[in-house]
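Hi U.,

Before I forget, here's the chain from the pilot set. I'm dumping it here mostly so it's searchable later in email.
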Amino acid sequence: MAPIDVQSSLDNLKLERDAIVLYDSLARIEKDPVRAGAFHRIAGNERRHAEVWATKLRDLGADVPESQRPRARVRFIILLARLFGTKAVTDLVIALEGDEEDAYDAQESPEVAAIAADEREHARIWGELRDGGAPGVAGLPPNPEATAAVMVAGRDGVSLARRAAAPSEIGAAENWHRTGARSGTLRAVIFGVSDGLVSNLALVMGVAGAATAAEPRFILLAGIAGLLAGSFSMAAGEYISMQSQRELFERQIALERAEMEAMPDEEEAELAATYRSKGFTAEEATRIAHRIFQDPATALDTLVREELGLDPDQLGSPVGAALGSFAAFAIGASIPVIPFLFGSGTAILAVSLGLSLVALFAVGAAVSLLTGRGLLFSGARQLAIGLAAALVTFAIGSIIGVAA
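Structure:
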């Protein structure tokens, strides 16, 4: 493990200052006062951590730098939170906390151990928030100010929960729960754009290599054909995949319903066993399961969630998935084609290639913001892959064109 020196302290200070900006921003974005209070308290922890490293720098005889703009990954998370809500960035923030924990694990210092423990706690808090738990349950002390703010805002979450007839009613009232799948959607969009961009750039360059100067229209025709064919193929594949998955889930739910009707006692015993595994006593688990089975609809919903791990209300939309894949692929595939709408020749081909390379780097950089890898590394990797595909297909097209 590396000892703490000036550079390590500077790096750690930057991490903590970025975290302060992140959590302050999330607290301002979040409409629910309880969740906002949790973010405020985490930001307070991060301020304490930043002061630890500022003090360390002074002890080492170094100057404490002024606060700088947060790194791109943090700014991207804040942007997503503004667009989709704080729930949508849960996985991204948990990954960020994990990266900070890993960074501290590689260092050797008494200060590091306490801060790393806080970072683990922050990740656990996010896990509780993601699962709908209260921040106090996650390890933070109750926040009376946040509780009072709930009442001032006119939202009484306790009364809401007591009136709710099903968990879905609570989720509908808490808008952050409706964004849980958006980070997955974001990944699908980015990779759909990447697929369209790389495949159609390769197609356009291959045809450009084979076409003669008198046949520039073939390049545009090939590009449009590739865009449409790829988009429809992606949409059809996504629809069939999502529909098959949905049918599988519906089949599993139907089998669970049939089992419950054919052998209710056995299913009730299985539900009781599930609750025993969660820490309830045998008597408590039996009583809860028996109470749930008084209502067949509630019993089926509970069995599906607990035994199959499915949410009956979130089985996915095949049509939505197909439209999303179509649009994402079409956006990426249109980039190499657009310049050819305004002319032809070597200059236009160079513009198409240059525009596509810029877009490839941008897509790679966007992927890095999801994966946590370096922005330059991910952008350059995506650019290299797309450029290699374009050069190979151009060379093959040129050989075929000459042979023809």
